Amino acid sequence: MIFATVGTQLPFPRFVGALDAIAGRRGLRIVAQTCGDTDTRPHLDRHEHLDPVTFDRFVREASVIVGHAGIGSILSAGRAGKPIILYPRRASLGEHRNEHQLATVAALCDRPGIHIAHTDEELEALLTTPDLTPFQLEQSANRTALVDRLRAFIAA
């Protein structure tokens, strides 16, 4: 199963439409959190909004996460160790207030497990690629040392 999210603030019809078309052509099972998208999407398992427990369950069950370039989606994929495909919103197409999502993907494009699609064709190619590299959040040395000290203290 592929889990798609557009975030909780704005619909993203271009992205959701591309996912629906790809799912129809390729027979993919895509569960999508669509936030206000009102168009008919016959090939998606759509959910307008998801509570946090259900959202986390879909993240855990998914083979890959695909979403707008929102930090929450990226962190969710990293915590779960899932590959993430980012399809950024574009202010030039009226999808956001500025081009910060393009800046986000430019900053993250060389990170293992973060895959970028700027076009529907790139999105389809990534969605049909077997065994995409998973994204893992890095633990800082300071955080690891703190956790080790806390574990030692608790065990004492």
TrEMBL record:
Q: What's a Pfam family in this record?
A: Glyco_tran_28_C
Q: Which UniProt keywords apply?
A: Transferase
| A GO MF label | hexosyltransferase activity
Q: Does the keyword Membrane apply?
A: no
The Glycosyl transferase family 28 C-terminal domain is annotated at: 52-128
Give the protein name, as stated in the record: Glucuronosyltransferase
**Which species does the entry assign this protein to?**
Sphingomonas sanguinis
Its taxonomic path starts at: Bacteria, Pseudomonadati, Pseudomonadota, Alphaproteobacteria, Sphingomonadales
